[in-house]
Write a structure and sequence with these properties.
The chain has 362 residues and is of the alpha/beta class. It has helices at 30-34, 52-60, 79-91, 106-118, 132-138, 176-193, 195-203, 214-231, 246-256, 265-282, 288-300, 314-322, 351-361; strands at 6-11, 17-23, 42-47, 66-70, 99-104, 124-129, 146-148, 151-155, 163-167, 334-339, 342-347. Strands 1-2-9-6-5-3-4 form a 7-stranded mixed beta sheet, sandwiched between helices. A two-stranded antiparallel ribbon has the order 7-8. A two-stranded antiparallel ribbon has the order 10-11. The radius of gyration is 20 Å and the shape is globular. The chain binds nicotinamide-adenine-dinucleotide and zinc ion (ZN).
């Protein structure tokens, strides 16, 4: 793997900017970056299930900081955790001019980003993503959030971190299932914006934390996501493209959490992308061979591509689809593939076509 640490500043229309460090050993860049916050205090929020060694490695790269452990994974994305962690920050003396460092996967960055954007109306925040999914997707673009009433990310803000530090060595302790869930978002980026990137991922089977190309793959995904976000920070148009696979994916994810086999977010996105690809085929865009190719690509990256709800619970899944945040008064709008590497958004799909696609995916 290339050992150079890549640095770039992403500037958004809102006037915010994010410093990005990516590469093996990127954590070594942290100390000088966060030093100016030392006086006002640095607060490290970390996922309590992370390996101790990993937390020590990152905290040693920071000047002295207060450490606050947070619940692991999706469990932290609740209003209760928001209150609990905010009270701890208050107790430990966090100020407006302090820095909150969030160490963990996408759940931790969604949660920590929300805490930072609300605490004293906004404290600077730095993410150190520890999953591939958080690196290529969750830590960029400024969306933060917690879940409520069984609906994902229903309370949140748009708030960019000041810095994202992606140290690829941190992925080495990831369970393979969690690592590959991140590859789903990478394939999604290829599908919606760049067919040659999709072809590259088709050949890298399976990607692993020690793959030679990992840093450059992460950089290409970040480039695709940030180019779209730079044009449409608030998701009034083009940013909706990034929701490819997420309409069906979110419904399947929520449904799976009511069963004994909960899916990881990225796994649900893989199924959602295959569903969207098949819808695109039924709507006359994609050839069936392309749908097969997409399905094979997910399978070869150890990701699921099919999902069968229990027969008597199909209606529950359809009801979850209607709860999608991106649905309008007229119904759910879909992101479809015009072709490999090009997506279109805000498409309506008839109930008959949806039923056919549901049949296919099961
Ligand atoms: N804000 C956004 O734009 C955006 C985009 C995509 C996803 N998300 C959100 O991201 C979340 C999913 O994130 P995720 O897939 O990173 O999962 P996660 O944060 O839930 O982490 C998955 C599991 O891996 C463990 N883990 C994390 N890093 C580890 C490491 N290095 N070694 C060992 N174990 C480790 C965690 O403790 C957890 O149990 C969802 O809540 C989703 O909604 C947000
Ligand atoms: Zn996602």
């Amino acid at each position: 793997m290339s050992d150079a640490v890549f640095h770039q500043v992403l500037s958004f229309e809102s006037g915010n900017s994010t410093d990005l460090f990516v590469g093996q050993g990127a954590c070594a860049k942290l100390r000088s970056y966060v030093e100016p916050y030392s006086k006002a205090g640095i607060f490290l929020l970390f996922d309590e299930s992370l390996p101790e060694l990993l937390v020590r490695h990152v905290s040693q790269a920071l000047p002295s900081c207060s450490q606050i452990s947070i619940s692991s994974g999706e469990e932290v994305k609740t209003l209760e955790s928001l209150k609990e962690v905010s009270l701890k920050l208050l107790e430990f003396g966090c100020k407006r001019s302090s820095l909150i460092v969030v160490l963990g996967g996408g759940a931790a960055t969604d949660f920590g980003g929300l805490v930072a954007s609300l605490f004293m109306r906004g404290v600077d925040c730095l993410y150190v993503p520890t999953t591939l999914l958080a690196a290529v997707d969750a830590s960029l673009g400024g969306k933060t959030g917690v879940n409520l009433g069984g609906v994902k990310n229903i309370l949140g803000t748009f708030s960019h971190p000041r810095c994202v530090c992606i140290d690829t060595t941190l992925f080495e302790s990831l369970p393979s299932r969690v690592f590959h869930a991140g590859v789903a978002e990478i394939i999604k980026h290829g599908l919606l914006a760049d067919s040659s990137y999709f072809e590259q991922i088709e050949k890298e089977v399976p990607l692993s934390p020690t793959s030679e190309s990992l840093r450059d793959v992460i950089l290409r995904s970040i480039e695709i996501k940030s180019e779209i976000v730079l044009e449409d920070e608030r998701e009034s148009g083009k940013r909706k493209l990034l929701n490819l696979g997420h309409t069906f994916g979110h419904a399947v994810e929520a449904y799976s959490h009511t069963t004994d086999n909960p899916l990881l977010h990225g796994e649900a996105v893989a199924i959602g992308c295959v569903f969207a690809a098949y819808l695109s085929h039924l709507e006359g865009y994609l050839a069936k061979e392309d749908v097969n190719r997409i399905e094979t690509c997910f399978s070869e990256q150890n990701l699921p591509s099919r999902f069968s709800p229990a027969k008597h619970r199909k209606d529950e899944l359809l009801a979850l689809l209607r709860q999608d945040k991106k649905s309008t008064a007229d119904g759910v709008r879909w992101v479809l593939l015009a072709q490999l590497g090009e997506a279109v958004f805000d498409r309506e799909v008839s109930q008959e076509v949806l039923a056919k696609a549901l049949q296919y995916i099961s």
